[in-house]
Amino acid sequence: MQSIISQGKNIEEAIHLGLELLEVNKRDVDIEIIQQAKKGFAGLGRKQAIVKLSLGGNPSGAEPTAPEHGNTPSMDEFIDTFLESESPKAADMAEIEQNEANDTVEMEMDELAGKAWVKDSQIHVKDSPNKYATVKIGEGIQLMKNNELVTEKSTIVSERDHLMLNIKPLETQYTVWDVRVEKDKLSAILEVKPGFKVERRVRDIEPDEHIELSVEETKEVTNTLKYDQVVRMLENLRVIYGINHNEIIRAIDTTEPGTFEIATGKKAEPGKNGWIDLKVETDPMNGLIEDESGNVDFRETNVIPSVEKGTIIATLHDPIPGRPGITVTNEPLPAKQTHPLKVVAKNGIIEVDAKLVATESGRPSIEQRGQLVKAMILPKLVHQGNVDLASGNIRFNGDVEIIGEVEENMLVEAGGDVFIHKATSEATITTSKSIVVKGNVISSELSAGKNNMLVVELGHLLGIMHVQVEKMITVIKQLTTSPAFKSNDFSVTGLQPLIRILLEKKFYNFLPYVKQYQEVVEKGREYIEGEEWHQVGVSIKQIFIVLSNQVTTMERLTNLSQKMKELSDTSDIPVEPNSYITVSDTINSSLYCSGDINIIGKGCINTKVHAGGKLHVRGIVRGGEVYGRLGATIHEVGTNSGTKTIVAVPKDQKIQLAKAFEGTVLKIGKISYKLQEERKHITARLNDNDQIIFE
What we know:
Helix content is about 20%, strand content about 35%. It has eleven helices and 47 strands. The strands form ten sheets. It has a 20-stranded mixed beta sheet that branches. Helix 6 packs antiparallel against helix 11 and helix 9 packs antiparallel against helix 10. The longest helix has about 30 residues. The radius of gyration is 50 Å and the shape is elongated.
């Protein structure tokens, strides 16, 4: 049997060409398909169909007829060229494939005319007599055309151009890490930012008249941090306590940036200061009590607690010390020092076996500020009638209950609570505790907790002065260690000459605060309990204002600074229980209280109100200025006539109004806002930019 290999664009064409070469009919041959036609990438390298035609016997048994045309190639010539055994040899098949590929390229180049494409980071172009291919250059790619860098964003290319694509093929970022010990030495933190490797190549692009070059990236995260590197770093930092090995392993395995607490110390456990455990009720109930509907029963009187002689008022407890901790560098961390109670028992109370016991019958009073506890039995004065010229002014170091009124120009001063059943008119009511007035307050001045208000004011001034004294001490230490000052004999003159120079040249704002402090101390001497505020004032005056016989040494100046800080810190501690003022209505008056002020009737008119706690007005505020240090809540503010009315709070508090008339001024911190129209349901506060906003 003789065979011939034939190829074509498809199976039908390959068979047809083979039959023509053999000059036989299809029924005279056996056909074997060797390869189907295959299309290559972008139309290039197309593989043609290959068939094998094998001559067989004539079905009729007759001999095959000879070719009619003598110039037709003989069978022997075809056999010499194409005849194969049962299958073509590998070398011959390779040659066939190469030839067919070349033929295919030639046949399909017409389809690529005027186009460009990218294959394996190489750019290819096929010219056309009618058009040029264009290339847009993407980010991160450089196109070199004829050995020159193309600077435009797009360009025309042709076969004659020498084209080369340049990119940054590889980018490597190494792992970055560090270990830090926190300031409190209670933890060691490992920060890890894993590295990476980015491989880039120009993206393959199908043939087109206009192509855009782009880069494709492959990113591989690489964390090269090793366990022993972290351990060595901890050794260098002397971290030996509380090492967390699991966190170290997590850190060296992470593929994302992060922080890991690889060592943890032990916090010192706080102890507990000494405390008092009250065994009886000591706080009087507010005399004007609202029911569930918000109504006030003015027939109710205040309830004042009382005890019998021998009653245990309270139990005193010693402080419980804290437990020390340990840092990651194995250093002991002492617990914060705890402090015992400092108890001042007087006027009917004594301390026995860590207990406060009443030695007289009466109303127990327990006042606490920080660790200072003042305990006493307050007597009670009940005045049956009005306070007038006939009765005279009332001064009593206990509770005062006035069944009638307090008339014009009369004075009531009490060490305890004041309860007035009727009105006060052009009167002055002062107490260190609380005030309740069931009637109207007209053209009067009420002051509750004035001693606490003075303590807060003095503490604020001392806080400002303490900061400047500390700066002064720092400057003096620097100056006295300088060679220029070594010759001066401060042991004789003391530091006052140097202090005076500093007051003139650098701390010129200090003396006005000293003067203000002295004035407040003198004005409130009868209300301020304890001599320490006065004694500090004397020391400040001797060191900074007048020359005393006592030499001012660095030790004396440091001791004064420490005492100033102690008193300033004490003033920041709220007193328990705090004072309050509760009245029905008030007109043309002044109300000052270190605690809350509640006006629970119709409201207040042309009155100045200062609450060291919360201010709550159930009715109206018309005219005047009201202030609530812990916020203000008012039902209605302002007037139709435009009478100036100011509602003020500190910068960190809110103003809440159910209704406010046009012209009402809201003041939060130092920022003021005047309402240009009537508004309802207002909640005002400062934002982060110190602007008043409404919620």
